[in-house]
Design a protein that fits this description.
alpha+beta; disordered C terminus; Luciferase domain-containing protein; six-stranded antiparallel beta sheet; 140 residues; 3 helices; Aspartate Aminotransferase, domain 1; Luciferase_dom
């Protein structure tokens, strides 16, 4: 795995206001990961090593759309986990898609009002509206 591609995604993601990273030596799957957060909310992580994957925590409908479009796969360790989309970062053509996926997740998290735990009604009609244009991820 060429870490140059992972570093390009990392530079872009860390250039956005409020995004921070922590390196975890023994992350999911046992290898090192770079965990990305906006405040206390995780947006995803990049697995270093042989597979070079970005694993993003996204709503079910976004994950399903990414998988259907071929832009992501289910998480290899949790294929039935419906909120994790894995995006390969194995070459220069993967960098824009990886950056766009993280960006869409950051926009979604920063646009949604935060509610105290237990205060949600569970009614989907009361959920915050998704920002315009953040229905999936494109390679631009």
């Amino acid at each position: 795995m060429d870490d140059e591609f992972l570093a390009a995604v990392k530079r872009a993601v860390l250039g956005w206001p409020g995004v921070e990273t922590t390196r975890i030596e023994h992350g999911p799957g046992g290898g090192p990961v770079a965990d990305y957060r906006v405040g206390r909310r995780q947006i995803g992580h990049i697995r270093h090593g042989n597979d070079g994957q970005a694993d993003l925590l996204v709503p079910i409908e976004v994950r399903d759309a990414l998988v259907r479009s071929g832009q992501a796969t289910p998480h290899p360790a949790f294929p039935d986990g419906r909120t994790v989309a894995s995006i390969p970062l194995r070459g220069p053509d993967d960098v824009p898609r990886g950056v766009a996926a993280f960006r869409a997740d950051v926009v979604r998290l920063t646009a949604a009002p935060r509610r105290p735990p237990g205060s949600g009604s569970g009614d989907p009609s009361l959920a915050p509206a998704r920002p315009a244009g953040v229905t999936g991820v494109t390679g631009s």
